[in-house]
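@channel sequence for tomorrow's demo:
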Amino acid sequence: MDKAFVEEMRKRVEKELNEKELAAIHFWKEELEKLLKKPAESLSALQVELKNLIARMENRLKALKKTGM
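structure tokens (generated this afternoon):
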């Protein structure tokens, strides 16, 4: 294969991976900001909300692993 082609493909893949990582981090950051803005009734209520967020993240990770991403 042509070296220039391989380098171009590597750059494209790297750029796409960076964009996807940025989108994922942005999404979860927004979810955390929603929790931060939401008035917590108590510390235990906040812990429950955080556990729910963690469960959502774990479910998403499992789904991604299942699809081979």
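heads up for whoever presents: The radius of gyration is 18 Å.
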